[in-house]
Amino acid sequence: MLEATPPDPALPESGAEPFAAARRLFAKLRERLSGGNSSLAELAELIASELEVEVCSIYVARPGEMLELAATYGLRIGAVGRTRLRVGEGIIGLAAAKGELMNLPDAQNHPEFAYRPETGEDRYASMLAVPIRRAGRTLGVIAVQNIEPRQYDTFEAETISTIAMLLGEILSAQGAGNIAPTGLGDSLSRRYAGHPLAPGIVRGSALPFGRSTGPRHVLADDPAAEIARLEQAMTEAEQSLDTLMADHLPQGHATREVLDAYRLISQGTGWLERVRSAINDGLTAEAAVDQVGSELRRRMRKIADPYLRERLADVEDMIERMLTALGAGTAKPDDASGMILIVRRLGPAELLDWHRRGIAGVAIEEASSGGHAAILARALDIPALAVEAGATEAAQQGDAVLLDAESGALILRPDPEVTALYERALAARSSRAAELSVYRDRPAATLDGTRLTLMLNVGLAFELDQLARTGAQGIGLYRTEIAALAAARVPGVAAQAADYRRVIERAAGQRVVFRTLDLGADKMLPGEADDAVENPAMGWRSLRVGLDRPAILRKQLRALLMGAAGHRLSIMFPMVATVAEFRAARDLLEAEAAKLADKPTEIEVGTMLEVPALLFQLPGLLAEADFISLGTNDLMQFLFAADRGTPKLAGRYDVLSAPVLELIEGLAAACAEEEVGFSICGEAAGRPLDALVFAAIGVNTLSMSGTAILPVKALLAAADLGAMRPVLRELRRAGAAGGSLRDPLTAWAREHGLPI
């Protein structure tokens, strides 16, 4: 049975008058449509009178990307057939171009408003414009207006959206045009920028995919029967997911936890109750699911937080599975071998299904590197790219495509010269991969004999498979918050302890450094979002949350101690700003340890060094910490007051600059003198050139992603630190003003034939 959730506070109660009005309207529309003799003008008048709006207008798409006023109630009748707007022109054109509703309390003062004097609409302030879509095409726009300025509420917006679906059936039957016809641009090469989710370069044929058919039936007479259909569709969607997991992720497979977390989120966010409510208002099950999905897509575009966007993508994934069960989905090809999937959004269950069908790669318009689909893509070794908007619309099935999830680009219909360039790159990549594989079982050492320890940064248990694939020497950073984010909650003590024990056992005696929960900033659990702050990265996050809410931290520390019983335990605290904070966290750990009979054989406690203030407390910190791990990502943004999420600042400040290298070298020397472990675990550690420079200034432990281990090993094996250090010394002296040393270091490495 479907779970019940509290009603959305933005909506009126089910017995309220607006719902009764909507039911009356839908019943009258059903009666008019069944008769088949109602004009658009009559429908516009009916809608206006039942919804108590002063204007209802219907615009229809015409050839040449034009929108023509086809019917109105409230505007001047003489404007019908005369008033035309280009797609993107005015509020009507903007709604069509963006494919989303426009809800404006004062439309005439909107910067895109286009006044047409023949309509007489200068009296009306508020406007709600909703695109009319059918089978993936925009066929027109319906707009309601009122004299008084006001924001139309959620219920009104959903009612007009439902009417737009009905109008889509009517306009499609009448042969209305499409505002985005195929043209010359569909044969030209197009390049879309993006950022890699899972590494790889692949060439194939395009498979743009999205639900391209609308509900065949929109209104229903029997809500109880439609609820039964909905429940049956939910059961079928669940069974299809169970079958998918059973066939391709057998019990015990580590990636099942991602799909289990997806299942929890997709069923527990309240959207099912919204679907049930829409059915009770007179919609068919598929139309109700479609309407809720459209609302989710509209909300998703307004959410900045990538994690929350990913959670909505999980819900939409389940919606698509339900639409398929209801007969309103788009059929997938049984064999997608060699194809590159191009989609707006993708959930993990869908990705697993596409993997079964043989896709070679995937480009997703709305995705983040920490999302479920990205995590699963990395686990399944599917090259994946988060690509800029527009690629899905531009791609035609069968188009030649190059997906570059290394440098971040999707190229549709590439020119022959570009294809030849990538063919050479793919051949070189294949050869390079074979060359790198020989380093898996070799120690990380430079040509002149300096040994380094290379470790992994991971966040989920299945990523531990990379230990064997890369020859890494343990886990230098286990992000405990990733599993919590995937499950949308912090698990209980017993569940956490079991997870940590599995990680330790799979590491098979190699060191695992567990970082305590690093929540906050861009990593918020549902329901935990606080009031907006100007800079969340420097706000209430990480250890600050743990110390202010000690129950959460104590439970995790207890779970770590229980999970590591009989084994070595390494715990690292994030975002430490003072020695007092470190001491307080360590005291909590010691208090929890004192309560347990079964304990780890050894406990070492360290800290991330991300906050520059700790550099001025170094003697006190070295006296209390067993190890320090420098996090270059946060340290760089705090050191240079440069938000790492701001594209305009990307690359402006470099870790390979004289001031930063002096800081790292001094820190490494101080730790060595006090016999305190020191490592670097930020993104810079996994860049081969950066790793080589770190080795040259005395850093001997680096922690990085699995894909970086073998390239770093290969560069180290070819480099002589004795020959490099004098060059680096001169470059640092010449670059003391703080500029990047990357270009001259890269040139030196290439001159000496080093594989960077």
Automatic annotation (TrEMBL):
SMART domains: GAF. Its main location: cytoplasm. GO terms for biological process: phosphoenolpyruvate-dependent sugar phosphotransferase system. Belongs to the PEP-utilizing enzyme family. SUPFAM superfamilies: Enzyme I of the PEP:sugar phosphotransferase system HPr-binding (sub)domain, GAF domain-like, Phosphoenolpyruvate/pyruvate domain, Phosphohistidine domain. Residues 35-181 form the GAF domain. One of its GO terms (molecular function) is phosphoenolpyruvate-protein phosphotransferase activity. Transmembrane segments: none annotated. This is phosphoenolpyruvate--protein phosphotransferase. It is an enzyme of class 2 (transferase). Its cofactor is Mg(2+). Keywords: Cytoplasm, Kinase, Magnesium, Metal-binding, Phosphotransferase system, Sugar transport, Transferase, Transport. It holds the Pfam family PEP-utilizers_C. It is found in: Cytoplasm. One of its GO terms (cellular component) is cytoplasm. The keyword Magnesium applies. It catalyses: L-histidyl-[protein] + phosphoenolpyruvate = N(pros)-phospho-L-histidyl-[protein] + pyruvate. Its EC number is 2.7.3.9.
